[in-house]
Amino acid sequence: MSEEVLSTTRTAALFDILTHYNTHAEIRDFRKPGSLAQYGPPFDHENRKPSTFPALQTLVSRFLLNLPGLNNLPEKWWKVQCHSIIENLENANLSESYDKGVIGSRKTVATAISALVEYPLRGTYGGLPEKNSQQADYDTTNAEDLSRAFRDFVNNAVYGNILEEMVNKTAQTDRLEDHPPLTKAVHEFVLVNLASLMHYTLILSPKGQYLLKLVDNANKLVPYLVIKQTVRIGNVATMINAMVKVGLAKMSVASVTNWIGLTQNSDEGMNLMQTIISTVLNWDIKDLESRATKLERERAKLGKEQLRSLKEYTTKPQHEQDRIRKESLTQSISIVTAILKDSKCSSTELTDSHHAQALDYLSIQLSIRDRKQLIQVLCKSSRDHLTTSVREVVDAYEPVIRRMHKAIDLSGTVTDFEYFLRDLIKLARVQTDKSGKSIIPTVGDFVQLLRKHQRSCHVFMHQCCKNDKELTGWYLDWAKQAASHFKREPDADFDASSSEFQEKGAGSLTPHLHDMFQSLPEDRQSQIIPILDSHSSFLDKMHAQSSSRLQNVLKSQPSKTPAIAKIFSGSASRPPSRAASPGPGSPVERTHSVPPPDPSDTSKEIKDSPTPEVSSSPGPGSFLARWQALLDATPITPLTQSGPPKAASSPEVVQASATDVDGSKLVHFGQAEAKGERIRVDQGPTKRKTSTQEARERQKQLKIVIDAMAEDFRKLLAEKTCYW
């Protein structure tokens, strides 16, 4: 085949497939102990030895290491504190969603992060083609105009000076209405997409309500009143020292005896930050252990032997668990059956009901161990790397904190954040009314929430830009440098006059992708070409459907449900009220916040209420479809004793995943929501196949491309980004 077979659209599709897979693969590889050995800077590394995590290493080195504040961290922080925490988490051997039969919280978060960070990665490697012609008029009620505004803003940030113009205007005013049309349109686009992400994460994600409960429980333990009083202290050195004591001081006998030298490395107890972490996780452990005890009582003597084998599996080394998991996959048997066969249990026979109980028991024991391991690593480690790392971060950020203390009303900022979080928790908690009808917030409701609190952010930025030009300059320089990484630069193999240079795609990687493709056998090339054409069509439809959902949100009306309307009326929680721009040293006085309710209230409300049914349309964002695609590709153990693995997005797994740690059902998903049909890309006008079947077939096709080129693609990225 000739090189021209890979047209611009096919090259862009190939680049999209490979970056999508590689990003998630790199994130997933962090579960393997020793992953940082060849990560590269800022960790220990060998000169000219490429990173084994080139995409993530590129993000860290280009966007994090030079961030004001973080750029003051010593090398020791990365190579000792950060390295040790990551290494300890890897060695903790936290559980896999496959074994639990449900979508885990970490899987939910990891796939979401992967779906988001692949965008800046594609921009970094492929570059953004410069766009010279722009229309200055934008209708903030039109989806196409908002999308165009976002593209124009990014183009001007990379190739123009819009960042400086926006900072200068922000220093003059805290009113969004005073900004030019482009800024207002981009603000609306970002606000709606952020609301869409929040809605999908907390409402439509199977683990959304559980994650919300964790946030609520942790939020109730935060001493906002103490924090607000502390940041009001006039002397910045005293203020920083007081905040460190509030969050990190350990008050125990062991901490004193260690300090005076009577003991060494004795457990000093926990500071406030660690107490919040351990308390929230221990609440979960208590409920999980109660469920486990109940299951153990229900089983006969023979059943208890089986349960003991399942419990022993949770403490096996990672390589042993991987071996048993592989047997489950290759033999098409459930993980429970594979464990019992491997354990030489006297009886491996189970009825369907007993198998369901056994899978539930295994999931409970894995969840208990996960939480205990997290507490051990983060809160009870003999060398407290977490506390030390936070102290060193505070030291690194001292110049930033000093300037913020003078320029910004920090106490007011904390208050605004407290009330935003309180409103978010109230809005996102799916519940039922007195008649038993489900109260489900829409994307439009989350848009209203952000509108209600957006002025807090506007005033914060205005105060910073107006009152401290140097601090603003630090972050402006960083933002301009970050934007410069998306410039498309010509090189010897990628001429500026070529058609690919002016189109979206792989940028300077285009010739290398062509070479990789040409190196494949001709039959494999012929097999991949139609897959690329299909994926290109898929991307067009994905963006079109996202634009359609954006238009629907822009036209949507606020919910009339009294419980939701009450939040926006200001009677449920005090709305933020910020002064225009208090000068340095003149903080706005605030009233104290209402004491938080008892930490157990959330669980009690959930348990006592009928199970609400979630039926809601997702918002805009192509990243949501990519997130769903990652779940489609995530295998879950068969829920019966034998059969093919389930997808993490299958209705049975989704419904099972929406269970609280105490066994109560948090929500029940409607049929379309459980299948993910509302977010998947519709491949055709006829519905001969379900969206789930289409997704599985698409995954099989993409696997052909991944198997043929993914390994070489990662090597290519590693060679291109090795600067040490």
Key structural traits:
724 residues; mainly alpha; two-stranded antiparallel sheet; two-stranded parallel sheet; globular; LEC1-like
Instruction: Evaluate the radius of gyration.
Output: 27 Å
Shape: globular
Spans where pLDDT lies below 50 across 5 or more residues: 579-597
Helix content percent band: 55-70%
Query: Distance N terminus to C terminus?
Result: 37 Å
Tell me the total number of β-strands. Answer: 6
* Rounded mean pLDDT score: 88
Strand arrangement, largest sheet?
1-2
Number of helices: 30
Major sheet size, sense and barrel closure: 2 strands, antiparallel
Helix/strand-derived category reads mainly alpha
Instruction: Kindly estimate the percentage of residues that lie in beta strands according to DSSP.
Output: under 5%
Organism: Vermiconidia calcicola
Coiled coil: 278-305
Region (Disordered): 491-510, 569-623, 636-661, 676-697
Biased composition (Low complexity): 569-587
Plain-language structure description:
Helix 3 (75-91) runs antiparallel to helix 18 (385-396) and helix 9 runs antiparallel to helix 20 (410-428). Among the domains are: 24-46 and 85-234 and 389-517 and 538-600 and 699-706, no CATH class; 270-379. It is mainly α and 724 residues long. It is built from 30 helices and 6 strands. Helix content is 63%, strand content 2%.
